[in-house]
Amino acid sequence: MAPKKRFSAEQIVEAAFSIAKSEGMDSISIRKVAEQLGSSIAPIYVNFSDVEELKRAVVQRISQIGQQMIDKQNTGSPFDDIGMASLQFAMEFPLLFRDLVLKPNDYLQHYDQDMGNELVTHMKKDPELAGFTDEELRIILLKMRVFQTGLAVMAINGQLPIAADLKSMKELLDSAAEDVMLAARLRKQPDAQQ
């Protein structure tokens, strides 16, 4: 009898990620991942108890990719880096973006808390955002996330009245960010409190 192939958890996650990229998260199954690896299902069950655990590992991989995209931006403006990385992810992985953002799912259950804390920490490095509390930064992030999500949806669906390239979208994103930050600064002024 031929020896069974062994695969690391990372290899299995990469195979599942490949399926998710091309067919969507709902297409991930133990059988499909085994086919992708040219294996039986046994090596997958050695590393993952079920398909849901594997899908959670794929979502963690997606989060890592998102963080790598933020780190690669490195423009000197962490806030801009977050926005551009989000748009880049949506443009490079439109099917995953749709699955994770537009479909009701539990995949991002802990994302908002975990990634939100990381993003707020990242935003604190931006001199343009100095003086804002963590809660104010969370609100700014939420407003920009709402805008960026809408922008990304329109871009990947071909609904933008401007060119749907990253440069044009960055200009639009920068303009919206300036507006959001200006409004947040105005609300912090003592006269605005009255």
TrEMBL record:
InterPro entries: Homeodomain-like_sf, HTH_TetR
Keyword Membrane: no
Highest taxon above the source species: Bacteria
Any one Gene Ontology molecular-function term assigned to this protein's record: DNA binding
Gene3D superfamilies found in the cross-reference section: Tetracycline Repressor, domain 2
Domain HTH tetR-type: 6-66
DNA-binding region: 29-48
Alphabetical UniProt keywords: DNA-binding
Protein name: HTH tetR-type domain-containing protein
High-level lineage: Bacteria, Bacillati, Bacillota, Bacilli, Bacillales
